[in-house]
Write a structure and sequence with these properties.
The structure is a single chain. The protein contains 13 helices and 13 strands. By secondary structure, the chain is an alpha/beta fold. The chain has a single domain, classed as 2-enoyl-CoA Hydratase, Chain A, domain 1 (Alpha-Beta Complex), CATH 3.90.226. It has an eight-stranded mixed sheet, sandwiched between helices. The protein has a three-stranded mixed sheet with strand order 9-11-12. Strand 3 and strand 4 form a beta hairpin. It starts with 5 loop residues before the first strand and ends with a helix.
Length: about 350
């Protein structure tokens, strides 16, 4: 494990990538309370799935969908509504997206999987508009991650302009363990952040990635040593002070610009899955989608990914693993997919 250099942050400028963010105490507005974690002044009823608040010039969007903050119906829509409100507020210069309670977004809602597989609902009907709204937001959006950001949770984080996390956080794309591939831009945004080789590994193996490795790979921008919400606010405030336009993941091409290296990485990944995942449908299709990210414009790559996802969902492998997942209890009291459970239960 590499030893990350430390540096002090006083809110005047952000550290470069690859550093741990050490924070001085940040004075917050009188109506903002921090007590054992993020406890923003509420706007509306705290029973709402998404709560909007502010710390002076920084807007805060807190996902409040216990016990695990799954992407249940109402969560994407609530975030979109809060984004729209904060964009209209001239006093707001940056936005933080954070999960309340014990985690960020660890995945989708199992009921949504059931509705999609039964044909009752279109894939990503709520998630796609959310990712577009995050990426197109005119003010910088900082995703603050604790616990896990798996599957649709990581796809949501990657649609934000920047990502900070606590050292104990984990990220991942474990869809392959359900016989699927990422279906909301994971195969398109991840190689833009982490490069083709790392994206191929994450999307074909489905293993969780610790925050330090995610930082080194380029998935995270900072690790926060201290209170996550305070750190994210400071990071957003420093970005706003720079006055630069938000950094859209979809526009990043530096790690895709070497066709020879891309081809070599994909070749090695295909050779690996022939040994470790022989006969499975999803892993090679995930590589096909990642290859599309290296060859096609972003929107065309998304369409390719969607077609491949639909194919995987309809295969006997996908149906079997989904049934296995449902039968073995991969859900929480609220019906949310527990990707912590998934990674362990389906690891073999």
């Amino acid at each position: 494990m590499p030893c990350w250099p430390s540096s002090c942050f006083n809110g005047s400028r952000a550290n470069g990538p690859g550093t741990i963010l050490h924070l001085e105490r940040i004075p917050l507005s009188h109506d903002f309370v921090l007590d054992q974690g993020p406890q923003p002044t509420k706007v509306g009823d705290m029973d709402e799935l998404v709560v909007q608040s502010r710390a002076r010039d920084i807007g805060i969007i807190t996902i409040n969908n216990p016990p695990v903050n799954a992407l249940s119906p109402g969560v994407p829509e609530g975030i979109i509504t809060a984004l729209g409100s904060l964009q209209k507020d001239a006093a707001i210069t940056g936005i933080v997206l954070i999960g309340g309670g014990r985690t960020f977004i660890p995945g989708a809602d199992i009921k949504e999987f059931e509705r999609i597989t039964s044909g009752q609902k279109q894939r990503n009907a709520g998630l796609t508009p959310l990712l577009q709204a995050l990426e197109e937001c005119a003010k910088p959006v900082v995703c603050a991650i604790h616990g896990t950001a798996f599957g649709g949770g990581l796809e949501t984080a990657m649609a934000c302009h920047y990502r900070v996390a606590v050292a104990s956080a984990q990220v991942g794309q474990p869809e392959v363990k359900l016989g699927l591939i990422p279906g909301a831009g994971g195969t398109q945004r991840l190689p833009r952040l982490a490069g083709v080789a790392r994206a191929a590994e994450m999307c074909t193996m489905g293993e969780p990635v610790p925050a330090a490795e995610a930082l080194q790979a380029g998935i995270q921008d900072q690790i926060v040593a201290g209170d996550l919400l305070e750190g994210a606010i400071a990071f957003a405030r420093a970005l706003a002070a720079r006055g630069e336009p938000p950094r859209k993941t979809r526009d990043l091409t530096e790690k895709l610009n070497d066709p020879k290296a891309n081809a070599q990485a994909l070749h090695e990944a295909r050779a690996m899955i022939k040994q470790r995942a022989r006969g499975l449908f999803a892993p090679p299709k995930a590589l096909d989608a990642i290859e599309a990210a290296t060859r096609l414009p972003f929107e065309e790559g998304l369409r390719k990914e969607g077609n491949l996802y639909d194919q995987a969902l309809a295969t006997p492998e996908g149906v079997r693993r989904m049934q296995q997942f449902l039968a073995r209890g991969g859900q929480t009291r609220s019906g949310a997919v527990s990707y912590d459970w998934l990674v362990g239960a389906l690891a073999g």
